[in-house]
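Handout, page 2. Input:
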Amino acid sequence: MTDDAVPELRASDADRERVSEILRDALAEGRLDMEEFEERLEATYKARTYGELTPITRDLPAPGVAPPPVSMVKEPVDSGSWAGRVVGGEGSSTWAVAVMSGFQRKGRWTVPKRFNSFCFWGGGDIDLREANFADREVVINCIAIMGGVNVTVPPGVEVVVRGIGIMGAFDSREDGVPGDPGAPRVIVTGFAFWGGVDVERKLTREERRRIKEERRQEKLERRGSARELPESSHGDVHDAHHRILDGRHRDAHRERNEERRERQEERRRERREERDRRRFGDY
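Output:
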């Protein structure tokens, strides 16, 4: 590959996140005003190639070093370990308000050490499944007055619920579930009056698809192994056939149960959204 072709390489989410961190530092240091920051941040998340990313930080220095261009060398893909998601620094968003309306924080974002949210006759969705974390322990503070907040965490994260509800409630089903080694600790606190704060643990849609594909491959391998069974006695083949059928029935039953659970979760979410629209949509 020639040097001229490098700027045309497709940029990854990690590349865009590195550029956005440089922009946030520049905003905090006064190198950019809010209007410039918003323009460059929008251009960053719209960028598709290295050639589009490089000009965005060309006139900005990285902290403590000479101004670097965006790296043109593809770095190893992050293994998905928790160490790579606890990034330090400041959060990309520290608060959210919904008054007779709604808000969302989801996708790729950095959770600060403390995130404050307020809902009055409104609803909020705080999704941490694809987020990075500014610290190993973060606090999600939720104030819900005649409204609701839904907090979604990925598997492996430890959750502690400390909220107070008056004619309202904080969902504590995930409270106390042990986390993975090195995983962040999420403390959900706040106050709910005629409202509620739900906490649920879910895989991302991509992870669910990946798991389903792995199981499909396992089934194909088992079927291939069954076709390669040696022609021994008729009784042995008959027993092996029954074992394979039993395994297929168990797999099919497990898949049906999982699909049923996914449909139930989707229906619950749709009912909750419909309830919020009926409650707050006319205001």
